[in-house]
Please model this.
Amino acid sequence: MTIVTSVEQLNALYGEPGEASLIKVTDYLLPEYRTMIEASPFMALATVGPEGLDCSPRGDAGPVVHIEDERTLMLPDWRGNNRIDSLSNIVRDPRVALMFLIPGSNTTMRLNGRAVVCVDEVITQRFTMDGRHPRSVIVISIEEVYSQCARAVLRADLWNPEKFRDSALLPTVGQMLASVRKGFDGATYDREWPGRAAGTMW
Model:
């Protein structure tokens, strides 16, 4: 196996990036960038900590993040599995990376910045849903934001319903858990999951 061991080798292999790849990066939200991010109900949140890297899916009923101003985003931390991997990383290393997906659009948005975990009640209660509010809000200061070309989503044909997988042909979470731990009751887990999710969405 021949491997690349330096940035110089990479530059020689790939050449210089095009003008559009460079000029698109800003440290604040252009109106067009804001429109794209406000249209996104889902993103991936990448964080880093002493144990390594983490990438967590984040979704909401409306925009996945609230745009406080052109340099600040707020991400309510809605209920999950209480592993708090992302939050644990952020309180020790504030660097974050976000990738926003917009259903039906082949363009994604990328953002790099620094984050803090805020628990001020005045802020957490701004995000009340179904009478509940998040225990914390991730406040993100933007350092870089830019659009990502559509090639990856086009190659994946991501939004084509004809390419959607039949979930009945995929392993369930209960089956995967039973594979990890002998004796785990995966069937009961799968049976109870829809009701549990509906009651703990927010």
